[in-house]
Structure formats: C-alpha cells, structure tokens
C-alpha cells in the first residue's frame, strides 16, 4: 500500500469511528505504522495532524458553520458572480463553454488528461487549452467510466494522456511542491443555471459551509434548493469547484457525487488546514499537535 493509500484508509477509519474518538495508536495500527511515522506521514500529505482532523469530524461544528455563514451573500457580491471568483489562496476563473464550442462538441480540441494520487483516492484531471474541464475521483468502476463521461461531453475531441501536464492543479491542492502562481482557469460546459451555481460555490470561503437554501438565496431563487442540489451534483471539477462545502440546513451532509464518506473527509481536511492557517497567523496562539 502506498502513502496515499494509507492516508485514505486512515481517514476513512476516523470518519467511521469519529464518535468514539480513536487515539493516535489505534488509527496508526489500522495502516500498520508506528505512531511516530504515521503522524509524520499524515501531516506531510494532509497538512494537519490526525488529532485536528478528527476534531473536525463533528455534526455540531457543521451546524455552527451554517449558522455563521450569513455573510455568504456579501462574499458572493464581493467576488462578483458574473465573472471570475476567488477560491481560498488561489484565483480561479470559471469560463463557460460558448454556444459555438458546444455545437462543435469538441471538434478540433485536444484534451490532455492524467491520473494522479490524492489523500482521497486517485483523481482524473483533464484540460482543454482554456483550462481544466474535468477533475473527478475514480470510483470502483475504474478509469474507463471517467474517460467515457469525458468523451460523452467532448465526443469529437482528441484525448492525449500526459500526466505531467495535468499535475500542477493537484499539487497546488495537496502541497506536493508546485503552486498555482497565476489565475487557474476552469473551462466547463453547463446550463446558465448550473454555471451560476458553480460560480456561487467559489464564493464560499475555505473552512466555511453553506446550505442549499443559502446558495439559492444568493442566486435570487429562494425556492430553488432542489435545483441547486441537482446543479451541485453535476459539478465537473471536484475540489476546485467546492461542492463539498454545501450541506443541509440541519447540518447533515446531504449527498455527494463521489460518496458521502469522502465528502466528510474533504470537509475535515479543509477545516483542519484552515484552522492551522488561522492559528499560525495569530501570534501567541497555540496550535494543536
């Protein structure tokens, strides 16, 4: 089992057993490592300690974040839903496929794709010359399922495997060394409503959560919570378009295209990383080991 496989297994174990708060020794034993080596491995690949990750796995925390997200409207207005939006430390510009591009169905377009490891399982990343068009977790059906979905959206395009060319966005997320130093572009196909929802998701700050109803309110369609949920389920770019930050008003996770357990892991990872950044920025504040 490789390092990312161990991390994924450990996080899945913590999600399943969060109620009893397993200690470091117990979690390390699940991946057959000493506490010392597991702690170092987890911090290196996840960016936070196992203890901080475990503390983020609570329903009460989710409820509090929902209650404190009243500023979502202000955040959305601040970035401008009609244009590019800011996503935590990096600028992310979401560009919709034009009607002409949609009609051509990818004719004359070369799609570059690669498969990359992550703490949450392997991901496929595909790009057009204008930006990332797909980032998806590879499920039990394997890579063929994701390639088939990619080809169904761009049936006349030419697919080229080049993992090196698609590595940077993954490394920027998981701290593998590279970073996105300029605007990161997303080039996605969707209805006008889907595009509006995806842009609204970019306005949710790292470490925060919003409800389906709050997203609908931001879009000026307070009765469209179900339609918002459908648009979120169609999100073509996992993580960079943060659909994992949307949960039910009650604090329950709701669904997730790539599995509810994975959604909980991503939320806890992001919350812990955000908390670590906050503690580092406040002199004299002690951070958790």
Automatic annotation (TrEMBL):
Keyword Nucleotidyltransferase assigned: no
Keyword field contains Transmembrane: no
Gene Ontology MF terms: methylated-DNA-[protein]-cysteine S-methyltransferase activity
CDD domains registered for this protein in UniProt: ATase
Domain of life: Bacteria
E.C. numbers: 2.1.1.63
Main enzyme class: transferase
Biological process annotations from GO: methylation
Keywords of the record: DNA damage, DNA repair, Methyltransferase, Transcription, Transcription regulation, Transferase
PROSITE patterns referenced in this protein's UniProt entry, alphabetically: HTH_ARAC_FAMILY_2, MGMT
Pfam families named in the record: DNA_binding_1, HTH_18
Catalytic activity reported: a 4-O-methyl-thymidine in DNA + L-cysteinyl-[protein] = a thymidine in DNA + S-methyl-L-cysteinyl-[protein]; a 6-O-methyl-2'-deoxyguanosine in DNA + L-cysteinyl-[protein] = S-methyl-L-cysteinyl-[protein] + a 2'-deoxyguanosine in DNA
Domain HTH araC/xylS-type intervals: 8-105
InterPro entries xrefs: Homeodomain-like_sf, HTH_AraC, MethylDNA_cys_MeTrfase_AS, MethylDNA_cys_MeTrfase_DNA-bd, MethylDNA_cys_MeTrfase_DNAb, MGMT_N_sf, WH-like_DNA-bd_sf
PANTHER family in the cross-refs: METHYLATED-DNA--PROTEIN-CYSTEINE METHYLTRANSFERASE (PTHR10815:SF13)
The name this protein goes by in its record: Methylated-DNA--[protein]-cysteine S-methyltransferase
